[in-house]
Amino acid sequence: MGNSVRKGKAVFVDPTQVKNLQLYKAVIEDNSNKSPEIIKYKSDGNEGSEWKKNQKTALKIKLQEFIGSSDIVIFSKTTCGKCTKVKSLLDNMNTPYLAVEIDQMESSQRFEEVLYEHTMETTLPSVFVKEQLIQYDEIITLSKDGLFQKLLESKEDKPRDNSYDFDLIVIGGGSGGLAASKEAAKYNKKVLVLDYVTPSPTGTKWGLGGTCVNVGCIPKKLMHQAALMRQALKDSHKYGWQVDANTVQHSWEAMTDSIQNYIGSLNWNYRVSLMENKVKYENGYGEFVEPHKIKSTSSRGKVKYFTAGKFLIATGERPRYLGIPGDKEYCITSDDLFSLPYCPGKTLVVGASYVALECAGFLAGLGLDVTVMVRSILLRGFDQQMADKIGEHMEEHGVKFLRHFVPTKVEQIEAGTPGKLLVTAQSADGTEITGEYNTVLLAIGREACTRKIGLDIPGVKINEKTGKIPVNDAEQTNVPYVYAIGDVLEDKLELTPVAIQAGRLLARRLYGDSTVKCDYVNVPTTVFTPLEYGACGLSEENAISKYGEENIEVYHSYFWPLEWTVPARDNNKCYAKIICNLKDNEKVVGFHVLAPNAGEITQGFAAAIKCGLTKDQLDNTIGIHPVCAEIFTTLTVTKRSGDSILQSGC
Ligand code: FAD
Ligand code: NA7
Q: CB of 320 within 8 A of CB of 314?
């Protein structure tokens, strides 16, 4: 029996009366550890429309949470004789249980309706033992014979022997796992999705939805937007606004509050959407304990077991640490940054790939003193000409770069929010330097979450060095009934839309008639550095090694966004480049753009590239004037020619 449940007391949170999503989440997480009391929240009159819309769903979710929150749950009324009898029976047996007193609820009638829909019982109490409904009469009869205690003991969390609990169990409720589970449920399959966030070393945790929504794409892009606003403020006086950008203040706390509130609403929507799609959700850490059986452990240590015919691993990745003195004690990662309750101040960003540069970019854009410590090159894996241009632009906009250094230790000089840290670093030639920072942000790559989920039990092979899972072109591991998608995959792009697409298509192939496989070629992507970088297809280096330098033609040009001409800034910084295969009708095999809104530009061209876009077709496309993307319809200068591509006007 879970010892967190207090005997005979009701702990109640009425979701329809809770208007603050963060508070609701906190209460749900903590409620069974709180002192036994009836908790009610009054409306602050500020409720979001989704709360009204989803009241019934909220109650259904709450009902399921109650049922799963204790080994014995009694839905009762304080005035009901039968209810009192069952509670006394359990009290006499000294057996802990959770009593939910419906008549104490603000929305008791609606909750009763939802309970009725669930149990099809018109009378109370409704007693659940290990999530199974037990009839009142059965309890009384058994108790007379002294058999009720035996019943409790026998109701172990054992799976049925001859059939699986689920058709599909998905481990990981992030971009890929949620997409796959909802799609599979559309084919009337019984699907369970487990999601569990292991807190970061500094204790940060978050809700349902995985990396992208909580600690990735979403907060990152919103903070990037906050930083761009500062540049817009600076530009605004040339457009007639009487704003002194130097006196305008930015509040880190206000920004993170707004962003976290939005994320809270997304977490909630994911819960509702799973419910609507009839996907069972468990907030538990999943690991294999038998080839077709997993164990789910909740944050309170409650263990459940589930079996399934098929499994999908979608556990994603978590930030890597340096393994030097002071890293886990004093450094943060992107997992902590987006909900950091205080402004990070003077920041050292360690690492030089896109997470590092994006974070450094928006922190500097918000006005902070930012240094990036680079071990070797910027943006490994991306087109290096574009990477260098991004670095130059960031440097011109105040970001400092410490090149060819790696940190060797981090010490605390002063505790605080932020405190003060002393970082010692060493270069390849042994030179040692030190520097003081308020915050050290590690962005040195991510580790696949595959080593602690018992993959050896079904015999799923991982790449021992990287932890990544090799799969065939149908996302199937070496064990035929175990599949994997998203960031855990070996040699695949780590992007949200890729995980979603792979998950959806997999479910359609497994349970529908589809044979369509995920196409990992020519996937567009954007790096949200202050000057955004959009790319699709091959980098120039990869095009040269694939086709040979003589067989490719590179067309390129600088350009000046019209909006930047009036404030007279950053001319000859935006850059467009396409790489064409001369042996294939000048088919575009690489597309690269450095521009404001580069992601918006790249998305459309990616569709054209998917359709086999050639240079000739680009030339025949009429541009839209005056926009940045029109440059791609007028590219004439080849890199080979060495002709000037500098612009004097837009
Ligand atoms: P995830 O979304 O990471 O989900 C995995 C889930 O499984 C997590 O909730 C995890 O807690 C849970 N889990 C792990 N182990 C277990 C277990 N044993 N039991 C139960 N649950 C478990 N991509 C883009 O496309 N665009 C961007 O702009 C972008 N920006 C990014 C910025 C940052 C800072 C980062 C870190 C990533 C960014 N990404 C971006 C990448 C994107 O977030 C990932 O590619 C995507 O989230 C991968 O989805 P997934 O389903 O594989 O894993
Ligand atoms: P990446 O793409 O794996 O890049 C890691 C970066 O960190 C890269 O610049 C590395 O330099 C650098 N690095 C790695 N180890 C160290 C040490 N020990 N010291 C200093 N610098 C180091 O990681 P990201 O976090 O940017 O992105 C990973 C994924 O997360 C991405 O694909 C998205 O899906 C989200 P190197 O070039 O190896 O010298």
A: no
